[in-house]
Amino acid sequence: MDIFPGITSPSTQIPESNVLGDMRREAETNALRIIQAKLEKPENLEKLDQLRTAATQRKRTLDEQLRTAVQSQLESIKTGIAQLQISLDNMKTVERTMRETDDKLQKIAPLQSKLEDLRLEANTYRQLSLAQANLDYIIKTPENVKKADELMGQEKLLQAHQLIMEIENSRNYLLFELHKVQEKDSQPDDIQLVTNYFADYERLVAHLRQLIAFRIARWYDCAISAPEKLVTALRLIEREEQVDRFWMEKKELTEFSPPDRPRQWKKLCFELLRKSVKDRIEGNQLETREEHKYWLTRHLEMCRQIILRDFRIITKTCLRCFPKQYDIVNRFLDYYHNCLKEHLTEICDPKRRSEGDTLTTAEVYTIVTFVRDYQGAECLGHPDLKLDLSQLSPLLEKDILAAVTDVFINERKQKFTEWIPNIISSEVKDWYALKEVELTSEHYYATTMPRMLINMIIETLDMAKQMSDETCQLILGMILQKINEFRDLYVTEINNYAKRYFADRKTFKENFTKQMVANANNCESIPNFVLIVRKKYDRDDLDDLSRSSQQQLDRYENMGKKFERTAEYCCDIILQEIEMDTLKYVKILFTRDWFGSTAKQCCGTIIETTRDYWSSELTHLKKPLLAYLFYTWHKRILAHYLRNLFSRNTPIKFSAPAERRACADQLRRESSQLDKEFKSWDGTSADNATEYHFNILSNIADVLEQTDLDSIVLEIATLAKKYPSLNMDQVTQVLLLRGDLTKQEAKDKADAALSNMPRVNQGILFEIMEIVNQLN
């Protein structure tokens, strides 16, 4: 059944009965699935009535929604058909009206040629009417031009501008009327006639513009001496801006605009202000590098003074002269900052410099410190100015600043490369020139070398720290590397000096020991100086360093240890000299020349020789080094004793207890004597006294003196406990010295004493035997 008469529903390819049957079957299947799910459990049968009621209610609700949807669709279809019928009627009306209009236009077309003369007369009348209406303005124009010239000559710019505006209004009115005429009939000759007549107006505008530009360009002088002139110029600029806006709006409505609008004098004002700022910054460079060494320092200092002085005027006078919307303080801040940035970039950028024209260290230092202090209290950050500096970009970009800093670092590196050999060369020259070594206030021998080195380091680091903390860290790392190079070169020269001396000790005998003491003291003092440098200049918290605090500490400790070893090496050279002076005595320790009726006073001579050195040169050696020297010397003396004592070819063999007792007494006596003397020389206090090990001789004496062969194993065991590196061969050799034991008996007793005692290579005896191996 069709819903609307005359409208047939579209046919379908599938018969309706088949579709309904499929839908019915699908619905039944779904219903059975739902019922099966809900009645799956036996207890759900009790809810059968409730389920049937809910299903009936849901079916009723769906039927109601379906009927409502069908009814809504039918209403929409009725409305659409009605609108289509209305559109059809309107189209027929439009077609009929267009046909009627076309018929009327065909009848009017011949009238155009008949009314041509009338059109021309109407145009002439319009022009004459326009000229008559503006006759007063046209007549007054020459007079106003003359008055405006006179007023500008008297610097009465406001009155002159008023007359110029009257002339402009007359011209613009005429041009506008001609523009309206042009819309229907083009008359370019009329426009040219008006333009020629008002030619003096353009000259007046150009002159006024020149006077205003002059005042704006000299804003600083005007703000100080005649702020009213600056205010007048700014008032005229604002008036011109209002006229520009008027004609821009007028052009949107009428498509007409005067030929010289917009003038944009406000934009010109800002350009002039920026140019004046640029001239003030660049114009104070009165010198070049060739004319003065510190040209850049003087130039940037002048810039700082000018900026500070100018902003005092800007924040006080200019702030009152310029309109509020100009935001003149921040605008000037932007101009000064960007112009200075461009100027410094031009100075620093290597791409803009000629080949070979590089910045010097002094110039780099000047630039970087200026950049650092630029926003400080001596410049833009002055408390009286109260400027907002938060939006300012860096005065130098990172890449340019890095390039400038690299110049400083490379130059300092080169300087250190030159200075270090020069310092050492000067020092070495004094060695060979037999120059008298100076005493410090603490009565230690020393030279000026450490002070020269540390002064050079501090001077460089002070400059670097003034530039930035990052630069200071980079320079510090370079300096530490150069100090290590210095130490290596210094050691080489000390070696050469010692070789020449020991090759011919008469050459500079009087000065060698003093100089070597001074060298040792120098090396001992340098780590202390470097520690001061570390506390003052080093920072462990900078991300740029890419090393931990422990690594930072290690590099100083390692360098300090190197110089300590160098100082000890100087002490070893001194000991070599002492040993050479006592060589014929230390070599015969624990030999027949040392013991017996014809024995030499070896120990006494060693002590006296050492005392001579101590009383003359070594008393001026710093106490830590003095303690090291005597401790090392005491081990070397013991090494000479033990070398002969433990030797299988020892020249001493005792034949009687009395002889062994005499030797033991001599060992104890010399042990006590050496211990006493050494403790009096090393400069240590009683609370911090150095422990010397001359008692090794006394302990060995106890073994030699022992008369009870059964108790000798106990003596050896006691000796082995004190010296854990004491081995079988050494004990055997000591027992064989007695002369009352065979080799096998000595080995058996040594084995009995050491069998339950593990031996380790450590302790004072092991250290002494290392020296013995070197002597052998």
From TrEMBL:
Q: Name one GO molecular function term.
A: SNARE binding
The residues the entry assigns to the signal sequence are: none
Pfam families, alphabetically? Sec6
One BP term from GO? exocyst localization
**Keyword entries, A-Z:** Exocytosis, Transport
InterPro entries attached here? Answer: EXOC3/Sec6, EXOC3/Sec6_C
Recorded GO cellular component terms are: exocyst
Say which domain of life the source belongs to. Eukaryota
Which PANTHER family would you find in this protein's record?
Answer: EXOCYST COMPLEX COMPONENT 3, EXOCYST COMPLEX COMPONENT SEC6-RELATED
- Tell me its family: Belongs to the SEC6 family.
Name of the molecule in the record: Exocyst complex component Sec6
